[in-house]
Design brief:
It is built from 9 helices and 16 strands. The strands form 3 sheets. Strands 3, 5, 6, 7, 8, 15 and 16 form a 7-stranded mixed sheet that branches. The longest helix is centred in the middle third of the chain and has 21 residues.
């Protein structure tokens, strides 16, 4: 099979495209023929070694795929050949990745694609969507009626955070570029503020006078001084972006509010946490509420170019999909 792979951790120039032996499923695995795969920032972290995780070499890149079941092991009897399926947790922790014509997926990390959902739409949102769900519910403990501050609400993760929070009965206060105000309101935000506006913290306080129960900054700026100032008593700040960020934390005001600060990476999510997120994702996909804003497709052979675009910051929220050239 053809695959995009590396033989050691390092720069984008180390990505190869060529033939590797087709994998074989184990007793509780499923062999999937890839229809389309996506490229995520975390893929560049794994490839470069910024995020350290066990990798078998040669190592196939990529987390996410949508495909069709070819064969299922005896411990994966719930899947049948021809099933349309998706996964968003390959390519780390010793698992080979998704950027290949075929992939082996553990059955507990594989989910059916809802009828009527295009593979391209699904693969573009399942990683940022799962990140959003885990941030809000697994780590943020969001409850109906609470107020959520979403910084960077027009981005891939921010859009999904806004949808999930609004659908859960929360009041969403969002920040985004002024040009994105209408779109973010359509996603469910009650208030949308220009993130370039002067005195932004005071503006947020005016629309959320009782404070913010959950704050999710998807932009990676992580202005903890402002976020702590805006917290309601027992409010929660969830960190999920900004790998190089080193902000100052106002410890006194945080603990005087009985507040909490929690960071997470989706790479450490358990299979049961991911399965719970997948159920929620499938409901939103089937309802048409989660859709990519903009995508660009490349052949699988151009995986190195996709990584280069990500690392150079050239995508500006656009999702890059890779499509195998075979049938």
């Amino acid at each position: 099979m053809y695959a995009a792979y590396i033989e050691e951790r390092g720069p984008v120039e180390g990505i190869r495209y060529g033939c590797l032996p087709e994998p074989r499923p184990g007793p509780s695995d499923v062999l999937v023929r890839t229809v389309v795969t996506a490229v995520n920032p975390v893929d560049t972290f794994v490839r470069s070694g910024v995020y350290r995780t066990p990798l078998p070499f040669p190592f196939v890149l990529g987390r996410d795929l949508v495909g069709t079941v070819v064969e299922a092991g005896p411990g994966a009897a719930e899947f049948r050949p021809g099933d349309r399926v998706w996964c968003n947790s390959l390519g780390h922790a010793g698992r080979q990745g998704a950027a290949a014509e075929s992939a082996v997926v553990p059955a507990d990390r594989l989910y059916r694609l809802p009828d009527g959902v295009r593979p391209e739409d699904a693969v573009a949102v399942v990683h940022p969507g799962a990140t959003a769900y885990l941030a809000l519910f697994t780590h943020g403990g969001l409850r109906p009626g609470e107020t959520v501050l979403v910084r960077g609400a027009a981005g891939n993760v921010g859009s999904a955070v806004t949808v999930f929070a609004a659908q859960a009965g929360a009041t969403v206060v969002a920040t985004a570029s002024a040009r994105d105000t209408g779109r973010v309101r359509e996603l469910g935000a009650a208030e949308v503020l220009d993130h370039h506006a002067p005195e932004l913290t005071e503006r947020i306080r005016r629309v959320a006078p009782g404070g913010v129960d959950v704050c999710v900054d998807t932009s990676g700026r992580n202005d903890l001084a402002a976020d702590v100032e805006l917290l309601a008593p027992r409010g929660r700040i969830v960190l999920l972006a900004g790998v190089a960020a080193r902000p100052e934390l106002p410890v006194g005001p945080l603990y005087m509010k009985d507040g909490s600060l929690r960071g997470f990476v989706i790479s450490r999510a358990t299979s049961s946490e991911l399965a719970e997120a997948a159920q929620a994702l499938n409901r939103q996909l089937a309802a048409g509420r989660l859709r990519p804003r903009q995508v660009e497709e490349l052949p699988l052979s151009e995986a190195a170019e996709a990584h280069r675009w990500l690392e150079e910051g050239r995508l500006h929220g656009k999702r890059v999909l890779l499509r195998p050239s075979g049938p």
